[in-house]
Batch of 2 targets.
Target 1
Amino acid sequence: MQRDIRNKYKRISKVQLKKLRRKRWRATFIFSIRVMLVMTVLMGCVPFFVFGKELAGSSASGPASEIIASPTETDPNQETEPIHTIPETKQETETASDKQEQLESAAPTEAPQDGEAKKQPSFIDPSKPMIAFTFDDGPYTKVDGRILNVLENHGGRATFFVVGSRVGDYKETLKRIYDSGSEIGNHTYSHKNLQKLDAGSIVSQVEATNDAVEAVIGQRPKLVRVPYGAYRGQVSDAVRYPMIQWNVDTRDWESKNKDAVLNSILSNAKDGNIILMHDLYPSTAEAFEEAIPLLIERGFQLVTVSELYASKGIPLEAGNVYFNVK
Ligand code: NI
C-alpha cells in the first residue's frame, strides 16, 4: 500500500515536473517573441526619429507624395519646376530637368504707380515700329531671369501672363517682372479651358489669380489671356477684362528648338504684332536672347500689351478680344 502511494506520488510528480518544464519553456518562448517584436518596432522607428518628415514624404507614393515633396516658396533658388505645361493648343508633358535656378537680382524699389507696370517707359515713339512679346504659363525663375536680363539690357518690356497657382512659388520673380516695368497679365488660376466651365468658375479662375498677384505686387492685372485661346461661348461675358490673344505663335512649346523659335520671331517681326511664347523653356530664353539685339538694331521698340494699344490710341475694353494692332 505504502509503496503504491509512493509510486503514485513519484508518477504524479514526474508528470507535474514535465508540465512545469513545458510551462517554463512556453513562457520563455513567448517572452523572447515579445522582446523581438518590441525590438523590431523600435528599429523601424529609428529612421523616423532621425529623418523625421522627409522620410515620410519620400517613402510615400501617388499624388500625396507630390504634395509632400513639393517645395515651398521663400527661397528663390529652390523654386519648383514647371508644374504643368499645358501649352496653348495641345497637351504636353513638361520635361525641364535642369534645376539650377538663376539668382534673383533685386531691382530698386519705387513707389508703385497706378497701372499695369511699376516703371513707366521713359519714352515710346509712336512713329517707330513696336512689338509686344507675351510669355504664358509662368512665372518660372530660370527662364524669366534670362528674359528680364535681355529686356533690361535693351530698355525693353514684355507682358507675362501668369498662372495664379504658380504665383506663390515665384514671388521674387513676379516682383522682378513688375519692378522692371514689364506687365503682369492673368492666365487664370489653374489653366483650364474656360469654355468648359460655368460662369461662376470662370470668374473665380480669373479673380483668384488677380488676388494672388495683388498679394505679391500690390496691383491687380488688367489683362487676361484665356488658356488655349478659348474665348468663345460664355467666356467673353464672364471674363470682365480685355482678352489678349496673339497673331504670331512661335510654337516654342512644341519645337523647344532655339533656331525654330528665333526664325519665327525674326520672320514675323512687324509693327503692332503680339508674339506668343512660353517662359517655361530654356530654348525660348535662348531664342529671345538672340532675337532682341537684332530687333533693336532694326529699330523695334519692345513694349507691353497695354503700352502697344495706348501708343496706337486703341482702348482695351472688358470682354473684347485683341489679336494685334494693324
Ligand atoms: Ni497657357
Note: Strands lie at 130-136, 159-162, 183-186, 243-244, 248-249, 274-278, 301-302, 321-322.
Target 2
Amino acid sequence: MTLLIKGALVVDHCGVAPVDIAVENGTIIGTFFDIDPSEGDTIFDARGLICMPGLIDIHTHLSLEVGKYTSADDFDTGTAAAIAGGTTTIVDYISPAKGESLSAAIDRWFEKAQDSRIDYSFHLCLTDDSESTMAGIEHAVGRGIRGFKVFMAYPDRYMMTPLQIMNVMKKVKECGGVLFVHTEDGNEIESLRAKSSEQNQLSMAEHARTRPAYQELNAAKVLYELVRETFCPTVIVHISAAEVLEVLRDASLKGIPLFGETCPQYLWLNDTMLDRPWPESAPFVCSPPLRNIEHLDALWDGLITGDIDVVSTDHCPFNMEDRMENGEDFRMVPNGLAGIENRFMLLQNGAITAGRFGWTRLVRLLSTNAAILSGLYPRKGTIRPGSDADLIFFDPASVTSFNSEDLFSGCDHNPYDGMQISGSVAVVLSRGEVVYDNGILTAEKGRGQFIPRSRVKPDRLWAVKMEDFPWAFCQ
Ligand code: URP
Ligand code: ZN
Ligand code: ZN
C-alpha cells in the first residue's frame, strides 16, 4: 500500500519544492510533481503545511546517572518529548559507571533503549586510553556504535590528557568513527572553583564565573592541534563561547576535520538567569555555562556562516527537587538542561521568524548534518528514495506556547516556560507511521529501532560545510 503525501511545501537540505511524496513500507519511494493517486493509495492532504525530514538529535542523556541523581527523562518520556518536538531519531550517550566495562555499559544502554518510541543510536563515553578502552572501541564498532566522547574537563571522573586523547583519536579514526569532545579546560576550572570555595562564593552565578569563555577557547585550541596531527574526524560539542568559532573557521579553511555543535540553551538563554534569586536560578546550571548576549549573537551568526554545523540539545534535565536538594551551592547542583521538546520551535523562530536564515539551512542544522556526522545518512536526514519515511509537518498558521504543565517530557519544569512562538509541529511520521497528530502522541513505547552506524568516510563529512550541497547527495 502506498501513502501519498500531497500538497505540502517540502524542504530538504537541497532546497524547497511543492512536491508530493510517495511512501511504501516505511520507506520513501519517490517525490513527484502532482502525482495522480492509484486505487488503494492512502492520501495525506498536507496542503498548508511545510514538510521536512524528521529531525535528528545527536546529543541526549536519557536516564543518565550523575552521582545520586538520574536525569528526568528516560527513553519512554524522552522520546515522547522528542516526537512532540519533531525529532524522529536520537543519538544517546552511553556513560559507563565507575569501574563498569564498556561492553557492560553498552548492554545496559541497549536495555534502557527498549522503551524508545523512535529510532536511536549511541555514542560511547571514554575515560582513558588503556588497552581495554581500545578493545572497547573495537567492540562498540562491532555493535554499530561509531561515535565516541572524551572530556577535557571533570578531572575527578572523566578528564583525559591531550596525549590520551590523541591515542584515542588514532583508534577512532582507524575504526571509521567520529570523536565528540567536551571542550573545557578542567584544570583551570578546578583552580577557579577552589578560589570560589575558599571565599564561600557559591551562588549559581559563580558556576559561570568559574567556567569563563577563555578556558573553553584554550581547550579548543589544544584540541585543534590534536586533530591537525591525527586527522580524526572530531566534533566540538555544546559550544557556548563565541571565541571557539574562530578555531573552527581556521580548521575549516585548512581542511582540518574539526566540526562544531551548539545547543538551543546557548542561543536562547543567558547568564543573567544565573543571577536570579535562589532557587529560580537552579534550572539554568549546565556545562559549559550560559553566557552573555554577545556570545548568543555570535553563535547565531555561526549558524549562518557555517562555522557551526549542527544544533543538538544536550538534553539532560534534572527535576527541581534534585537541583535544590543541597541548597544554594553551585558545586552540588546536577548539570544539564532540557531541550528535546523545544529545539525545533526555538530554532525555527530564531531562524525563519527572525529572518536570520531559511528553511534549507535549518534542515541541515537540525537533521542532515547530524545524520552525516553520525554515519546515519542517507537512511536518515533526507527526503529521497530509499530513505526512511521520517517526516515532520509544520503548521505556520498556528501558535505554540511553552509551559511546564503541557510537557511530554518527564521533567517538572521548562527553561523556556511562558514563551509563545508562531507555528507548531502538526504531524510527525516515523518510518511512515503517524506518531504524532496535532498534540496527540500515537507512538507505542518500544517501537523504536536501533540504527547501526556506517563507517564514516572523512571526505564525505565536508558536505556539511558546503553552501551548495554536493549534487551527489541530492540524487
Ligand atoms: O551540563 C551538561 N552539559 N550536562 C550533560 C553532560 C555533558 O557534559 O554533556
Ligand atoms: Zn559534555
Ligand atoms: Zn552532553
Note: The longest strand covers residues 391-401.
